[in-house]
Amino acid sequence: MSVDFWTYLLVGLSFALYIGIALWSRAGSTKEFYVAGGGVPPVANGMATAADWMSAASFISMAGIIAFAGRDGSRFLMGWTGGYVLLALLLAPYLRRFGKYTVPDFIGDRYYSKFARVVAIFCAIFVSFTYVAGQMRGVGLVFGRYLGVSVEWGVVIGMCIVFFYAVLGGMKGITYTQVAQFCVLIFAYMVPAIFLSIMMTGNMVPQFGLGGDAIVDGVATGQSVLSRLDGLSEELGFAKYTDGTLSTIDLFCITLALMAGTAGLPHVIVRFYTVKKVADARKSAFWALLFIAILYTAAPAVAVFARTNLLDTIPGKHYSETPEWFKNWEDTGLIAWVDKNEDGVIQYLGKDKDGGAAFVGKPDYAGTRKEASGAVGQRILKNDITANANELYIDRDIMVLANPEIGGLPNWVIGLIAAGGLAAALSTAAGLLLVISSSVSHDLLKKTYMPDISEKGELKAARIAAGVAVCVAGYFGINPPGFVASVVALAFGLAASSFFPAIILGIFWKRTTSQGAIAGMVTGIAFTTAYIIYFKFMGGTKDQLWFGISPEGIGSLGMVLNFIVTTTVTLMTPAPPAAIQELVQRVRVPRTSYDDYNPDDDQPIAH
Amino acid sequence: MLTADEARSRYWKKTILWVVGLLIIWFAASLGCGVLWVDQLDQFMLPGTGIKLGFWFAQQGSILVFLCLLAAFVFIMNRLDQELSEAIEDTRKEGK
After folding, report:
1. Phi, psi at A481, each rounded to 5°
2. How many Å apart are CA A233 and CA A231, to the nearest integer?
3. Strand bridging mode A213-216 / A219-224
4. Pairing between strand A392-394 and A219-224?
5. Does any CB of chain A come closer than 8 Å to the CB of residue B40?
6. Which of A511-515, A529-533, B65-69 has the lowest mean pLDDT?
7. Which of A303, A295, A256, A323 is nearest to A555 (CA)?
């Protein structure tokens, strides 16, 4: 049966499942809409958190990024998992005990200030929009590549699906769809990984395959896959795969910023409000990390296998001898070739052998294969050709997307990748949309400007906000502003330099005052934003970087600044009111230890 | 015999100690072994495999350590919760 048949079948089935779940779990109250009623079992919440967290970027792009960056790619692996340790140890249990619904809720109440709340709302909405635009784009691309729909229509279909279950089901609908989406995405990721691992190392577990010995054309070489890849890379003039090129301080700052940013992202934090009690919040952090770790420990292996495969099969081959998949993906523009020396052979070379980008920008074909093909049948490009000797352009995403074809896997596996990529993108998009909608209806309306709004009115406002957010996200998905890729750094940087210190100090230091926290948040945000804008948009050059820290890592410095400013200002202002100090005390120890314990308090506080 | 307030403050002190301890391991396994000392560790191999030790910590090892830390945290905190609720139970009996 054809690839198209399997793709339509698997994507169709998974969509039917999501819609079925959404119908079954409609939200009837604001509590169900914001936090799924607060009774999600820890394992289910762990799965939902994992699906929420693993976006189209984790599923489609991460292994490819690592495949090209080698050891430098570790910053994403450590950064995007290490944050969960910070989250579980320092934030989640206390925020869960505090109750309420959102992150701005905690900031606003703990720092007894409307201004602090509004700053937090602004950050939450900005961070979420940055993220969600990328997800909608991912949905559009998967549709475009696998289902033959245009990117625009792909985004519209994705919007309809998300609209349906996010607006109808709220957090409750999202949670249970995310559980299903996690199963789809992890299965879709692991099947090709297992096939590849058996093919390249003879080991059934890809995680272990990373340390195994290479098998080439069915013959064991006795050389480890990694040292073989190091050799292949050096031969072509690339840096050794297991060596890094980033400076230690830069790598340190980027990893730390990603960790603290992860712990401070509102759509991740809010998931811990959905469990029944504090002990469950701790447990679900463990489950979430376990489920994330399955993909994150397989990704470096997939990266190595895919990179080795690529270097084995393409460089030095005549175009007419390249495998079928090369031409298929050439048609999608994810791989392209310019025959600079007109010998018909594909030269793929790294920096040490006069390599570099083959041409300027992304492939721009002169016409279809029939209309415009070169001497040996390759597609003709309109791009400006660069002077170096490298002739091959490869988009990083191909490392995961083309894996089943490179490995010669059956057609249903290809369909599975499409369903998995969509599950990853949709689940993350839904989680983010919910944060945006609750920030508007709960934080901005109910808690700040319209305290008299009824529960029904609030629920309606939440649904309208979610609907508007879906449309805005869809618009950005279809017309991506050029800055989306650059502002993702800003999303992590902002989360690290604003929320993270404010919440930690709010819990662990009773003395922290409103003035201190606000001064700290404003300094952190201003500093981080200014640095990123200067280097990303105003043409800041490499030698102007502070201590060689790239914009992606500056959130770490912003965070340190925030801690320093908050502490200094706090010590210069009078201690917070006794009621606030008592509130902090109560967040620290189990509620059951107080005589006035009331089991209802374990539920998120209703209106 | 502890008073309820003393029991609660002992609970909090112990929590902080454990959290600080776990965070030290967190730092050492990721930013330590995976970033700061990675070149030194790369001189060794992960026993029984073909992966350099520093590289392994950076790409897989740190994640496994994180998982163990969270499992330990769940276990430790459940025990501290239990200890506190027993101490509070005692003070309540005393009160009667």
Report:
1. -65, 140
2. 5
3. antiparallel
4. unpaired
5. no
6. A529-533
7. A256
Residue A396, pLDDT > 90, answer no
Q: Which of A293, A296, A297, A291 is nearest to A44 (CA)?
A: A291
Average pLDDT, chain A: 85
The encoded tokens of residue A214 equal 């290479």
| Residues B49, A255: C-beta atoms closer than 8 Å | no
Q: Name the B residues in 12-31 with CB < 8 Å from any A CB.
A: 12, 15-16, 19, 22-23, 26, 30-31
- Chain B residue numbers with beta carbons less than 8 Å from the beta carbon of A86 are 26
- Which of A391, A238, A276 is CA-nearest to residue A322? A391
Query: Are B69 and A290 an interchain contact pair (Cβ–Cβ within 8 Å)?
Result: no
Among the partner residues A86, A283, A300, nearest to B60 by beta-carbon distance: A300
A108-117, pLDDT tens digit by residue? 889 988 888 8
DSSP structural state of residue A36? G
Q: Answer yes or no: are the C-beta atoms of A303 and A73 closer than 8 Å.
A: yes
Alpha-carbon span A466 to B84, nearest angstrom = 43
Cβ–Cβ < 8 Å for A162, A469: no
The Cβ-side half-sphere exposure at A217, using a 13 Å CA radius, reads: 2
Q: Sort out which chain A residues have CB atoms less than 8 A from B11's CB and list them.
A: 589-590, 593
Residue A486: band (very low, low, confident or very high) from pLDDT cuts 50, 70, 90? low
Q: Are A158 and A495 in contact (CB under 8 A)?
A: no
DSSP secondary structure code for residue A606 in this structure = P
Q: Collect all residues with Cβ–Cβ distance below 8 Å to A264 and sequence separation of at least 6.
A: A495, A496, A498, A499, A500, A503
Q: What's the CA gap between A356 and B8, in Å, rounded?
A: 62
Could you give the domains of chain A? 3-308+410-486 (1.20.1730.10), 335-394 (no CATH)
State the pLDDT at residue A605: 45
Query: DSSP assignment, residue A239?
Result: P
Separation CA A47–CA A279 (nearest Å):
17
Q: What confidence tier does A440 reach under pLDDT thresholds 50, 70, 90?
A: confident
CA distance A5 to chain B (A): 37
- Euclidean distance between CA atoms B91 and A223, whole angstroms: 66
Q: What value does the CA radius of gyration of chain A take, rounded to a whole number of Å?
A: 25
On whether any CB of chain A is under 8 Å from the CB of B53, the answer is: no
| A157 in Cβ contact with A517 (< 8 Å) | no
Q: Which long-range contacts (CB under 8 A, 24 or more apart) does A539-548 make?
A: A547/A249, A548/A247, A548/A249, A548/A250
Distance CA A194, CA A206 (A): 6
| Residue A275 phi, psi (nearest 5) | -95, 170
Task: Sort out which chain A residues have CB atoms less than 8 A from B50's CB and list them.
Answer: 211-213, 223-227
The helix (H) or strand (E) run that includes residue A355 is: none
